């Protein structure tokens, strides 16, 4: 394996030793820059009870540029599209090297608690979220139940 | 003659204001009771501000009945101090409050904290960029907002953000470009900072990096990998996993109504490396290697 930057090693160790409640992230065997992630749906959100799988990749110049993150489990959310791509400023122009894997995943978990249909990525979902919020929340709960549960 | 509670407090606050002047702020509640006293404390460095590497804001909340009952202490916005230093400060201020029950204690607290800061007037925190500490001989920079970075790490941040700023500017038509030029910001709090990048660039990498451990797959990692895999397999069976190929083909059909590629059944785990992702790209022949990888990850952020 090519030399892994010390910062990535340190973050990995801390993720294992002091895990963030409701979030687990583990590097892949063959590529220590690729993380398998599970984020639990926050309490009092339509995603409560769900276990969402994500993939996270640290690019060559991390932490100077943001990790690339995507949902793997289907999710009904106005800021996450059908391919699982996430609309979140800190993953783009608001990235800072003082952010870490754990803070990024916490922000994503917070996005589940606070959907923002005014800044949509999934247009049909955002539209329904604006015109009929209760139906949108019902859909989100249904998707969580159907796709994001554990056995 | 015994003074009333309020007179004793009044006297203490007047003395504090006389000593600290503008460096202390007292907040009164609706009934005019002084409920909160706040001051930011620096180490004693004979007024050489550039040698103050740490600071903390002390908040003393005064319950009715103070000084005959203990005030509530909060230490806010610590700079250059790690968690254990802060915890020790909490312990010793608490002890001081107990010791001084019935007597004015605020100035005692300020002095206690100042002594502690003077003793540990070297950043005990980590560099937020590389996550390693500051060792003797490391070249480090203190921002005006009291955040610490190895000069080497800060230089990397500044050159990267400057390059990104320039790239964004170059994309814009001339009339939309910023006239102010590049403004460096602190990685931690985004406050504007002024730094000489050229000088920072000459700094050597932090020392602790050299002695850091290498990466090893531990049994913890194995266990977690296993449970992730189980969840993936279960959700896959339930149809809960996003099928990138199928979704992309849907998009293509809508936008171009081009060739109808059947969704491939990728039942393997979705990892691990970008190289295996791009292999699938070539298979599918929808996008080129690089494009496809970007397409999967770089979501539009508008």
UniProtKB/TrEMBL annotation, chain A:
Gene Ontology biological process terms, A to Z: protein ubiquitination
Gene Ontology CC: UBC13-MMS2 complex
Active-site residue list: 87 (glycyl thioester intermediate)
A Pfam family per the record: UQ_con
Residue span, UBC core domain: 3-149
Keyword field: ATP-binding, Nucleotide-binding, Transferase, Ubl conjugation pathway
Database matches in InterPro entries: Ub_conjugating_enzyme, UBC, UBQ-conjugating_AS, UBQ-conjugating_enzyme/RWD
Lineage, top ranks: Eukaryota, Metazoa, Ecdysozoa, Arthropoda, Hexapoda
GO molecular function: ATP binding; transferase activity
Superkingdom assignment: Eukaryota
Record-given protein name: UBC core domain-containing protein
CDD domains assigned to the protein according to its UniProt record, in alphabetical order: UBCc_UBE2N
Family: Belongs to the ubiquitin-conjugating enzyme family.
From TrEMBL, chain B:
Residues annotated as domain RWD: 11-120
Name of the protein described by the UniProt record: E3 ubiquitin-protein ligase RNF25
Domain RING-type: 127-190
Keywords tagged on the record: Metal-binding, Zinc, Zinc-finger
Region (Disordered): 255-287
SUPFAM superfamilies: RING/U-box, UBC-like
Organism for this UniProt entry: Molorchus minor
UniProt-listed InterPro entries: RNF25 (IPR039133), RWD_dom (IPR006575), UBQ-conjugating_enzyme/RWD (IPR016135), Znf_RING (IPR001841), Znf_RING/FYVE/PHD (IPR013083)
């Amino acid at each position: 394996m090519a030399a892994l930057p010390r910062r990535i090693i340190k973050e990995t160790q801390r993720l294992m030793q002091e895990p963030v409640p409701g979030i687990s992230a583990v590097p892949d065997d063959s590529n220590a820059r690729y993380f398998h992630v599970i984020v639990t749906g926050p309490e009092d959100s339509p995603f409560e009870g769900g276990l969402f799988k994500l993939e996270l990749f640290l690019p060559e110049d991390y932490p100077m540029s943001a990790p690339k993150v995507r949902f793997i489990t289907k999710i009904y959310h106005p800021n996450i599209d059908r391919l699982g791509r996430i609309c979140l400023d800190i993953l783009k122009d608001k990235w800072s090297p003082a952010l870490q894997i754990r803070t990024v995943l916490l922000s994503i978990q917070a996005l589940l608690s606070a959907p923002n249909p005014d800044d949509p990525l999934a247009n049909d979902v955002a539209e329904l979220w604006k015109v009929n919020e209760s139906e949108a929340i019902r859909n989100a709960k249904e998707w969580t139940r159907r796709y994001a549960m554990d056995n | 003659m015994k003074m009333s509670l309020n007179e004793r407090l009044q006297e203490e606050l007047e003395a504090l204001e006389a000593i600290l002047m503008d460096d202390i702020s007292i907040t009164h509640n609706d009934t005019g009771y002084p409920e909160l006293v706040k001051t930011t404390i620096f180490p004693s460095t004979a007024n050489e501000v550039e040698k103050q590497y740490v600071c903390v804001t002390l908040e003393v909340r005064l319950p009715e009945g103070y000084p005959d009952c203990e005030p509530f202490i909060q230490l806010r916005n610590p700079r250059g101090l790690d968690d254990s230093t802060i915890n020790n400060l909490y312990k010793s201020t608490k002890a001081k409050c107990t010791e001084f029950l019935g007597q004015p204690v605020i100035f005692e607290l300020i002095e206690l904290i100042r002594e502690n800061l003077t003793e540990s007037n070297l950043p005990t925190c980590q560099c937020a960029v590389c996550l390693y500490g500051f060792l003797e001989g490391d070249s480090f920079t203190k921002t005006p907002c009291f955040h610490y970075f190895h000069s080497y790490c800060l230089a990397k941040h500044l050159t990267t953000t400057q390059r990104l700023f320039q790239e964004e500017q170059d994309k814009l038509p001339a009339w939309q470009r910023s006239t102010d030029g590049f403004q460096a910001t602190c990685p931690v709090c985004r406050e504007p900072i002024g730094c000489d990048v050229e000088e920072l660039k000459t700094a050597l990498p932090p020392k602790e990096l050299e002695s850091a451990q290498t990466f090893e797959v531990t049994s913890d990692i194995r266990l977690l990998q296993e449970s992730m895999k189980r969840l993936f397999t279960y959700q896959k069976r339930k149809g809960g996993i996003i099928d990138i190929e199928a979704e992309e083909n849907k998009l293509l059909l809508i936008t171009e109504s081009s060739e109808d590629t059947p969704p491939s059944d990728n039942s393997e785990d979705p990892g691990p490396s970008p190289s295996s992702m791009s292999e699938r790209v070539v298979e599918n022949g929808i996008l080129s290697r690089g494009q496809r990888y970007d397409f999967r990850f770089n979501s539009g952020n508008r």
